[in-house]
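User: Predict cyclic pyranopterin monophosphate synthase's structure from this.
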Amino acid sequence: MGEFSHIDKDGKANMVDVGDKTPQIREAKATGIIQLEPRTIELIKENALKKGDVLTIAEIAGIQAAKKTSDLIPLCHTLQITKAEVKCTIVENGVQANTRVKCIGQTGVEMEALTAASVALLTVYDMCKAVDKSMTIVGITLLEKTKIDIK
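Assistant:
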């Protein structure tokens, strides 16, 4: 098992220096689900919640979160994101958020993809909390991360 890159020789927090790394096209995909009561799912489908269009607002929130990840996670680098995509869909037991974040840079965008999924689902939670007291967010996970050399 390797050493932790975010800890210095004295065990203190350390932001990794990626300055010597060659920029690459980097992409990450993440997902998660918020489990909802059947009636809540119907209200979302009918666009009948007082706060508005749950899925669209959650998608926008996820995109905003991807762009603000370095403000939320202390040792994340600020990245120039070239694409942030969040798709929220109704599934059998709730809403699933699927995210894809892309940049050209010296470090990956997996934290941005995971943050986008998390905040999209938290937005669903916020918009539905008045009607569903049993919501549970589960399965937030990184699906894939890639890097491609720039030609």
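The beta strands are 24-35, 81-91, 94-105, 136-149.
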